[in-house]
Each structure stands twice: as structure tokens, then as C-alpha cells.
Hints:
The chain has helices spanning 26-37, 59-71, 96-101, 113-123, 133-136, 143-154, 186-191, 215-228, 255-263, and strands at residues 11-15, 41-44, 75-80, 105-108, 127-129, 161-163, 170-173, 176-185, 204-211, 236-243, 270-272, 285-287, 290-294, 299-302. With 310 residues, it is of the alpha/beta class. Helix 8 (215-228) runs parallel beside helix 9.
Amino acid sequence: MYLHRLQPGDTIGIICPASLMDPGSPRLLLMEERLKALNLSFKYGKTCFARYGYLAGSDELRTSDLHEMFLDEEVKAILCLKGGYGCSRLVDKLDYELIKQHPKLLIGFSDITVLINAIYQQTGLPMMHGAVGIYLGSPSFDASSLDDFAHMLFSPQLGRVLKNPHDDAITLNPGLSSGVLVGGNLSLIAALQGTAWDIPFKNKIVLIEDVDEAPYRLDRFFASLRLSGKLREAVGFVFGYFTGCEPKDPSVWDVNELIDQYFKPLGVPVVKNFASGHNYPFLNLPIGLQVELNADTKTITILEELYASH
């Protein structure tokens, strides 16, 4: 089932399905300016400036806001304003049949990992591990990130080759592999194990990134995935940024050493430091589409079309 490829003048719906947003943030203005520069209109959902504890509204409000954006015929794609916490509280409340009957692209990462993978698993619709609104509104969101964001929205995806703009990705295990891309934030991938929303790894290319996690916690997440048997089911791994995960004590293992320990023995293609996650530049990756991972050239090639032809 194909999604709508945006055209100039289309409207993007903006929601906040996880942590609350500071309404005074200067990133909102820059995000709006950049959307307008792409000749896109936008409308804010009810959650964008709501507050319920540390969340952007109650579970019921955040669920209904997502449903309403899928139902809104004016809205052609949905951009999550930010991640944070709270999406795990929503996945068992979503109406997946409603979403399937009104297909459109949902864009986000970090805590949004839960939503984009759950929607793909329950509906077969691909979603986007993509820059959230506050990233689009960051002064650090550079020209290459803006270019990829525009290509993600406006261009056919079949055959697109994604490669770090600074060619600074690292090959851990060489080789070529293809499979459906799944995954995202490591702590969420680990937390979903044992639930109905567990992210399957079998015959998949798995994207993994995280932020502000101590190495011993990353070690625990990796060990949990290894003990589950899931690591040996995947056909390739792409590691994004691990921003803020550096050890306080330089004598202990860092994330690169942990990745080497757990993933080198698997023998499947593995690339580290791919430009996706909590840093810049930011490349948008389609969850639920067939991709080819070439660990020798450190590229991801999209093997399926995401959008309906116009």
C-alpha cells in the first residue's frame, strides 16, 4: 500500500505524542520557517502545547490527536514535534484499522520508535525514522539534513542511496545484505521485548541508536537482545549516533567496544556511526521498506517505492 508523496502547498499535521513541548521554544519558529520555505502548510494538533505531568496531554488526548490527524483529509503527512517519553502508553490504544484505511506518513524518531514500528507491524504501512520538528527547528540542522528531509517528502524513494554526508560511517563487518528495515532507539527496542509490540528481527536489517545512556546500560540492553536469541535472526545492523553515551571513566568500555563485542561475532554486515539519531547531519530512514545494506560502501539503498505515483 503506497503513501502520498507530498507536493508543494500540501499540509503537514504536527503532533506531540510523547513528552510535552515548551511553547516558548525558539525552535518552533525556525521549524515553521523551514516548512514554509519548502512551500508546505502545517497545522498543530491538540497535543503540541498540552501538559499532563511530563507528557503532552493524557493518553486519551494523545491517542485521539494521532487518530484525528490520520482522519484529516487536508493533512498529507504527520510530523512528530519531539520524542521523549510516553509512546509506549499508546500502542495498545491505537485504532490500527483506522490508520490503515487512511494511510499517510508518520515521521519521528527516539521515543517515536514505538509508534513507527507498531504501525508498520499492525498495518504493513511503512513509516519514517525521521527528524522530529524540534530537530528541523534546530540551528544545527545543516544543509545536508534539510536536503535529505526534502527528498524524503517530495521525491520517489525507490533506488535512493543514503550515505553519510561526511563519509564517516565505519564498517565493522563487511558484506551485502537486504531485508526490511526495522528498529530505532535501543532502549525502546529492549523495553518492548516480551510484549505484543516486540520488534521482530528475523530476516531484518535493524537500525539501532540511543542517547544519554551510560555504557553499562547499553551493555545490559545488548545482553538482553543476545539472550533473547534475536541478534542471530537479523541479516544486518546499522548503528546510528550514540550521543551522550560516552563513559565518564575513559578506562571502561565505550559504545564502540560494546558493539564490537556483541555484533562482530554475528558475521552479518554491520555499519557503525551512520548519520541517523540524536545528532547532525540527520538521514531519514524508512521503517518497513526493503533496503540493501552495503557495509563495504557504507550505504543503504531503498529497494521499494514508498509513494504512489502522481
